[in-house]
Every structure is written in structure tokens, then in C-alpha cells.
Amino acid sequence: MEEGEFYAIETFGSTGKGYVTEDLECSHYMKNFDVGHVPLRLPAAKKLLQVIDQNFDTLAFCRRFLDRLGEQRYFAALRNL
Questions:
Q1: Which residue of 32, 47, 51, 54 sits 20 to 30 Å from the alpha carbon of 71, by its own alpha carbon?
Q2: Rounded to whole angstroms, how far apart are CA atoms 52 and 48?
Q3: Could you give phi then psi for residue 61, rounded to 5 degrees?
């Protein structure tokens, strides 16, 4: 670690037994910056990607953040991305 560097710390709730169980529902999302242009057919997915690019770029976000931006009915578009 160097002075001026930033790190993210992810916390996980635990029963204390040291096991992490993955749930099937995804709660946090992040744009993969290693992927180039991907053609999207769904207009709602194109619109949502623009919102993500403008507000988060490659930072992680959750659906609550999209709600706060006023986005509505975006779940199908998010699944398409």
C-alpha cells in the first residue's frame, strides 16, 4: 500500500463459522472495463447503459442508486446488460 492509494473494503455478514453462501440474486453491479463495444438490441438497455456510463462509469453500484436517480422499470434492461 502506498500513500494516496484507495482501496474498497467489502463486508460480509457471518454467523461466525467462516462460511459464505452465494445467493442467486445479484445486489451489486459493475461495468466490466475490459469489454469493448457490445451491440445492444433492447432500447431500454441502451438507455440504462447511458445512465450507468454518465453516473458510475466503472464504479460499482446497486439498484438503489438507480432508484435515487429516478430510473424506473429498469430490471429487464439491467438483466440484458
A1: 32
A2: 6
A3: -150, 165
Give pLDDT tens digits for 11-55: 767 777 777 677 777 788 998 888 888 899 999 999 999 999 999
- Is this model's pTM higher than 0.90 or not? no
DSSP per position, 2-25:
-TT-----------SS------SS
CA dist 52 and 58 (Å) reads 9
Cα-based distances in Å from 72 to 35, 40, 45, 53, 65: 26, 19, 12, 17, 11
Give the N- to C-terminal CA distance of the chain in Å, as an integer: 34
The position carrying cell 446488460 is 81
Q: How far apart are CA 64 and CA 27, in angstroms?
A: 9
